[in-house]
Amino acid sequence: MIRHLFTGLVLASLAVTAHAAFNVDQLMSGLAQHKGGRAKFVEKRTLAVLDRPLVATGEMTYTPPDRLEKRTLTPKPETMVLDKNQVSIERDKRKYSISLTSRPEALAFVDSIRNTLAGNRAALEKNYTLQLDGNNDNWVLTLTPTEQKIAALLQRITISGSEDQIHTIDYLLADGDRSELTIEPLDPR
Predict the structure, then answer these.
(1) Residue 81, domain member (yes or no)
(2) Is 102 left (phi over 0), alpha (psi -120 to 50) or beta?
(3) Considering only CA atoms, which of 116, 112, 110 is closest in space to residue 89?
(4) Of 25, 56, 74, 177, which residue is most buried, by most CB within 10 angstroms?
(5) Count of C-beta atoms within a 10 Å radius of residue 21
């Protein structure tokens, strides 16, 4: 009986050690190895002023290190391209372009996703506290703003995935509104 208890404790200790071994550096290293690609998305936005969530679907393309294209197909076509510090939006046959250089809080918000996709921990830690839970097969990374201007817009970003794939990005805004983006890769590994 004591031998079984001891063996169980040793095995539990090894499992905890293996679980504890997964850390932010390992996650970022795995994400940095991912060479970009295409994915389809479903975005569900919950706004306090609406009775039900807004749902949009489409495709995204990430080209490391700093280009992200989001093509919304439903409910209304729209294309948004983040290329370095420039945001271009095309909807209803109109095109808008905004430089994020003069809006550091907006740039930090955008870079939270690009830097996570690129596995750039140092860049993330300039504006966020990082907390990682889980293991390589099922992880959750929470980004909490450390900069007051960002915190005025955003409570936190929760990103979940497995290995080097991000599955969901959940934004909780400072006003309580929320946006959850579910991502499914289209490109084979």
Answers:
(1) no
(2) alpha
(3) 110
(4) 56
(5) 10
**Residue at 14 is within a domain:** no
- pLDDT, tens digit (0-9, with 9 covering 90-100), for 7-31: 443 444 444 444 457 999 999 999 9
Which CATH number does the domain housing residue 50 bear? 2.50.20.10
- Between CA 118 and CA 106 the distance in angstroms is 18
Residue 4 lies inside a defined structural domain of this protein? no
Tell me if 170 is assigned to some domain.
Answer: yes
d(CA 149, CA 61): 29
Rounded alpha-carbon distances, angstroms, from residue 41 to 141, 166, 168, 185: 19, 11, 9, 9
What is the tally of structural domains in the chain?
A: 1
| pLDDT value of residue 160 | 97
First to last CA, the chain: 47
Taking 90 as the threshold, does the pLDDT of residue 43 lie above it?
A: yes
Mean pLDDT of the chain: 87
Crossing angle of the two packed helices 24-33 and 104-118, in degrees rounded to 10: 80
Neighbours of 120 (CB within 10 A): 19
Tokens (6 digits) for 124: 């993330």
* Spatial distance between the Cα atoms of 183 and 189, rounded to a whole number of angstroms: 15
